[in-house]
């Protein structure tokens, strides 16, 4: 029997990470049908996690939430740890780096229902940043950057659907969107308070400080 790997990630984490977009909001979500961890032993009572196990779990949550490989995620964490700021400052810097990836910004603008889909569209060169094509999902956008669709893609059915979907979409405060032109702009930088990451950042920093 085929088991969706993304659903298994959420079940293993013990919470919704919204990896499948709209499906995660409906009754078909695996966390509703099977709220226990995957595997034959999933329904059994779980043993208490060690400190290392807790840190690993938190790391996996945030890494999977943003859809990153281990080497990518580790690089971001190590970069902010080098600055040796307070826990609050370091946490804010990590979230800023992760949220300002181009694929995440496309997702936050409401152009896609999941980060994985955003990554795919960016990789195929569907978007322009300040008028120039960028096909690197990890590209870091900056305050003032303007994101638009490549003109040749505007008439495709997928973008017509996006134009309809974003009419009721609530944007994060650090982004601005012209819903008629489908043009997004970075007007500020994201905060932890608004982002509400699904993991304990301190545990993640402790994991990579070992």
Give me a quick take on this structure.
The protein is an alpha+beta fold. Helix content is 43%, strand content 8%.
Describe it.
This protein is α+β, with helices and mostly antiparallel strands. It folds into two domains: 5-38 and 49-99 and 197-208, Ribosomal protein S4/S9, N-terminal domain (Ribosomal Protein S4 Delta 41, Chain A, domain 1, Orthogonal Bundle); 105-186, Structural Genomics Hypothetical 15.5 Kd Protein In mrcA-pckA Intergenic Region, Chain A. The chain has helices spanning 5-13, 30-33, 51-65, 70-81, 87-99, 102-108, 115-123, 157-165, 192-195, 201-208, and strands spanning 127-129, 132-133, 146-149, 175-178, 183-186. Strands 2-1-3-5-4 form a five-stranded antiparallel beta sheet, with no helix packed on it. A hairpin with a 4-residue loop joins strand 4 (175-178) and strand 5. Helix 3 (51-65) packs across helix 10 and helix 4 (70-81) packs across helix 5 (87-99). The N and C termini lie far apart (39 Å).
Give the key terms.
210 residues, alpha+beta, Ribosomal Protein S4 Delta 41, Chain A, domain 1, Structural Genomics Hypothetical 15.5 Kd Protein In mrcA-pckA Intergenic Region, Chain A, 2 domains, five-stranded antiparallel beta sheet, globular
